[in-house]
Amino acid sequence: MIFSADIEDWQQSVYDFDRAVSNRVLFNTSRLLDILAEHKVTGTFFVQGMVAEKFPRLVKAIAHAGHELACHSYTHRRLYDLTEAQFRDELHRSVAILEDISGEKVIGFRAPTFSVRDEYLDWYCDALKTEGIVYDSSIMLATVRSCYGFNDDGILQRIRERGLDTYPMSVSKLLGKNLPVMGGGYFRLYPYWFNRWLARDLDRDTSVFYMHPYETDTHEYREVSKLMEIPQKMKYHQFARRGSVAGKLHQLLRDYPFTSFRDRYYSNCRYAPTTASKL
Ligand SMILES: [Zn+2]
């Protein structure tokens, strides 16, 4: 299975794009690095540009531990809220920051909130290729609260026709419908046994698991609710069962073999940053 994590700060990436990135992302990502080290697992870290810019040593620590660095945009604004020019600017900036810090070529991209849509697929794929991105991991093959997702897998072919590899999130069939599994809120909210049961037919080598380090942060609600108003619905949706995630993660890492996209698919490829400094 592919292990992937989106490195972002909840207060900035979910609550308010205009907030500064908080220190919590440091502690939360460090906790994740420790858990992965304990299980000798390496994965792909999709790092948001604003986080990398503020905490370059965190980026170095991720790379130093053997994980793949990949890009998760700059501000975490959804693609449908950006113009083509804004997206290209965000992408260029965030890839450049990661490559400057690490000296490694970034070849993977995950769009914020899986916000890829057909209407801008042409410029989306072209922008990625222009920055030397080789693969996309932004597709959810299930529609979720009409916010994101695709009902069928034709989108994968449409991306491949535009010259990129693409690796969708894991889904499982339940009552005739695709249900997201092995990731994010689904992994957090479901009991572990239910996650495993849903994942019983997944390919153990190629399926994708994803998470956010903030999902292991059990103190964040107490801290941020002093500073900002958190609507009741958001409280449940974003904070429920965070206390269960670290334990489930340990179990998951014991039960499945994990690797990164780079090591699974591109270990024989040589990629180098296009310039010494792109900033
Ligand atoms: Zn994200």
Shape: globular
CATH superfamily: Glycoside hydrolase/deacetylase
Q: Which small-molecule species are bound to the chains here?
A: zinc ion
Order of helices and strands: EHHEHHEHEHEHEEEHHEHHHH
Biggest sheet strand line-up: 3-2-1-9
Radius of gyration from CA coordinates: 18 Å
Q: What level of helicity do the residues show? A: 40-55%
Q: Mean of the pLDDT scores?
A: 93
The secondary-structure class comes to alpha/beta
N-to-C CA distance: 34 Å
Strand content: 5-15%
Number of domains: 1
Give the CATH topology: TIM Barrel
Helices, by number, come to: 13
Which stretches are poorly predicted, pLDDT < 50 over at least 5 residues?
Answer: none
**Any guess at the CATH architecture?**
Alpha-Beta Barrel
- Please summarize the sheet with the most strands: 4 strands, parallel
Specify the CATH class: Alpha Beta
Give the total of beta strands: 9
